[in-house]
Amino acid sequence: MIAVTGILLLLLVPMAVLLGRWRAHAERERWRLQIYAQLIEQSDELVYVTTPDATILFANPAVERLTGYSREEIVGNTPRLFKSDRQPDAFYTALWRKVRARKTVRTVLVNRRKDGSLFYESKIISPLVDKTGRVTHLVSVGRDITAEQSRQEREMRLADQLSHHFNNLLSPIINYAEMAADTAEENAQADIRADIEKVLTGANRLRDVLGRISAISLDSCLSQGVQAVGPVVRGIAKIEQQTLPGNVSLSLEMDEDMDAVGVEFDDLALVLSEVIGNGRDAVEGGGQISIKVVMSAFDGDVNCSTCGAALNGEYGDISVTDSGRGMSASEFANAFDPFYSTKQSSKLVGETLGIGLSRVRNRVHANGGHIIVDT
Hints:
The chain is an alpha+beta fold and 375 residues long. The chain has helices at 2-42, 61-67, 71-74, 89-100, 146-186, 190-221, 229-243, 265-282, 329-334, 356-366; strands at 46-50, 56-59, 105-112, 118-129, 135-144, 226-228, 248-254, 262-264, 287-303, 310-322.
């Protein structure tokens, strides 16, 4: 009997140890899940979870605060509850095609609150899959970027006002220079006329730059909203191709998935126009400009060239390269500063105002993106 009791005790001791370990593991898992729940509940990011057919199962308080809908109104509904008319149906069709292919979507949307007002949301939609690869849920994590968009619109209005002011100052300079050139020609003063013509060339180039700034500013005020990246890039590339001299070629390579990625039209149009314009100037004697648009994944091993942040996750990767000489280290250090130019002419009278790349940086960062420069 004593031997039997001893055997039972020996068996019970390992069982007690295993039970204790199980309880400790369960407690750690419970604590971990509690932290995750608090993180989502208290986050300012807009988080909701849906079924594969987009029925919302959960929404955190940030969604309620921003949209004005209660959790009871949101749960059981679909994201169409927040839909505005700023994205075309083709955009949503392409987005859902990518989601159903179990791909993560990174996009920007203009959505509508309960009171009818609009807000800009930078969003990532990720499918959750089980061991068989079947999509079980969709997770949407978004960030309100309305303030950034409003600030950019104010900046563009200011740019338009400055452009108009400089044009007013420039008009008499051009008029008097033209009269002086005519006088020099009448008096057979060829050297003087040649110098005046240089002034006129610089002034007219400046007027063209100011007109371009004003046009971009006007386009921003008449915002076309969020559009799919693919059609926007193709449209801008076609327009820019027509402005290039005959000795500069432009090529485009793009993944079809980019039709499912959304972006603020005005921002991408400005960024592409400025960067392609820089490429055109860099290959002034003739060369090649190439645009490549793909989805790229980063794991923290690459840093933004302007803010230094490490890139993590999947991004719409828009690369513009040219066959020019590139930038020196000193030029690169100042390239994104306002009113800095690598061109030989004056910053205010000549080919450029030197504000293009600083605006590119601001627009890219406002959309949650980054810039990588290889020169």
